[in-house]
Design brief:
The protein is mainly beta. It has three helices and ten strands, in the order βββββαβββββαα. Strands 8-1-2-10-9 form a five-stranded mixed sheet, with no helix packed on it. A five-stranded mixed sheet has the order 3-6-7-5-4.
């Protein structure tokens, strides 16, 4: 279990998927970029949109709309938030495909409300909780738990593919 300084204000990247707002703590975000060409990976999970080259590393891109079982649109999001995720003691880079990155918000950890047990249409394990700002709820993601252990292992495998596969972009 991680310890948090519950009194200290922290910055979060705020983004949207459809009409829903999400936040990820800034210190886990490496870059925000427009989606460019991806290389599709055969037999990957349906939520793995493909891979991209990020500073020489192969980074799997996770379609959060599919991962969270949101309604699909003809055009998925066009922004990728590259994050660092902890898998056991290993750092894994992962791109999160979102519709739009809106702004940076600040709040104290103690202001995060707990996730309700029922009435939520996706796995609440992904969430640290909810924050209410300006009358709207924003879901605070725990990036280390967006994927299960086995899914993270699959994404790690994709990340460790030979570079020559990705260099053809």
């Amino acid at each position: 279990m991680r310890t948090q300084d519950i009194e200290k204000r922290k910055s979060y990247i705020n983004f949207s998927i459809g009409n829903e707002n999400f936040a990820i703590i800034v210190n886990r975000v490496l870059e925000i970029m427009h989606l460019n060409q991806l290389t599709h990976v055969p037999n990957a999970s349906d939520f793995v949109k493909g891979i991209l080259n990020f500073r020489g590393a192969i980074v799997p891109v996770i379609n959060l709309r599919k991962r969270f079982n949101f309604m699909q649109h003809e055009v998925d999001g066009d922004m990728v938030v590259v994050v660092e995720v902890m898998n056991n003691d290993n750092h894994v880079l992962m791109g999160l495909l979102v519709d739009e990155v809106t702004d940076v918000i600040e709040f104290e950890y103690k202001d995060i409300r707990t996730v309700p047990e029922i009435g939520i249409k996706y796995n609440p394990d992904f969430l640290e909780g909810f924050i209410e700002m300006n009358g709207k709820f924003t879901m605070v993601l725990d990036v280390d738990r967006v994927l299960s252990i086995s899914e993270l292992a699959e994404v790690s495998e994709v990340s460790n593919m030979p570079k020559d596969i990705h260099e053809n972009q």
